[in-house]
Amino acid sequence: MSAQAPSAEPLPTVPGSRNTGLDRARAVATLAMVMGHTLDAVLSDAARDGVGMVAYWSLRAVTAPLFLFVAGWAFATTVQRTGAHGSSVLRRYLPRVALLLGWGYLLRWPGWGLPLLFAGDVTVWRHFLAFDALHGVAAALCMGAGVMSVLQGRAARMGALAALAVLVPLVSPWVRATVLAGGWPLALEQALASKTSNFPLFPWSSYFFLGGLAGLWLAQVKRVPHWLCLMGAGTVILSLMTLWGGDPRVSDPTLVAWRVGLLSVAAGAAMLLPARLDRWMAPVGRASLWVYVVHLPLAYGWSTFAGLATRLGRSQDVLPALGLALSVLAVSLLIALPAKKLHGRWRGRNRGPARPDAPGDSTAPGLTP
């Protein structure tokens, strides 16, 4: 077992080296996201009732939390590794927050209902302002950057992230009731707790903060494989929840606890993938935002462009649906990976030559169910 640990998860040895285990976890979350969205768009109702698909649909609920988790993990470890603090953290990440929000609202642009949008129709505005994956990551990233800018020590940052991770699901029922009682601006309502948003800040940001906490914790672990730490922690959480009998449908804290246990096991399993896959998986994980932006219109459509959900609807059996999902994945990667590379070259030219010892940025926020 010990002889295989380095190949299962090489650990960073010098500042700036990449955590390939994190890259694998992000790649798995990205691939699962694309496959899950496409299957959701085209799989028939009859096929969804099959035993295998029922089990898959239960596990699919972990994809979004996993994506938020690894985004928080990448963010926190990058900030800690680079030694950034104070306003430098905000200068670095607030533009990314704006980028994520911009892409998020652009993807929800209701080109099919512009007259109603400009006329102030509430239904169309709710659609446009609803919080999706990119919005959720952006809001959590903004809060996380604020915490990391104020606090500098690892212990203090871990304590603050742990407090946020626990507090968010605990207060989510109260926040939801308060917001839905009315009187809030629509954009803020959609961001905080609206039922028409897929990823409102409460409780979804909790997974991002937990990822940040895990990243800071794992960076201190040198003698135990990180995959084992994650799988062990996830197994303990799931065992405790099973013994306690906590029903995930009862409250936000119990649902978050179940998902954290499952995503920890899933992230640990992803880190065990063979190291020879890193040359393919690392670029996919780092291009998660690009893959997200490309695949959503293909699966669900955008503005007046009809995606598979409109063209085919829920009409496909399992095998054809899987074939379509793989096709969407292939097209998304063929577009996203070159676009990411070109964007990186453009940024490099604008920034000038990089320092030889400059640490690579492993933060690539992204996600969905």
Structural overview:
The protein has helices at residues 5-8, 20-42, 45-48, 51-60, 63-82, 87-107, 114-118, 122-129, 133-150, 154-180, 186-192, 201-218, 226-244, 252-271, 278-286, 288-300, 308-311, 318-351. It is built from 18 helices and no strands. The chain is mainly α. The protein starts with a helix and ends in an 18-residue tail after the last helix. α2 crosses α14. 72% of the residues lie in helices and 0% in strands.
What key attributes describe this structure?
369 residues; globular; mainly alpha
What's the gist of this structure?
With 369 residues, the protein is an all-alpha fold.
First-last Cα distance: 34 Å
User: Spans with pLDDT under 50 lasting ≥5 residues?
Assistant: 1-16, 354-369
Order of helices and strands: HHHHHHHHHHHHHHHHHH
Instruction: Specify the overall morphology.
Output: globular
Q: What is Rg? A: 20 Å
Instruction: Report helical residue fraction.
Output: over 70%
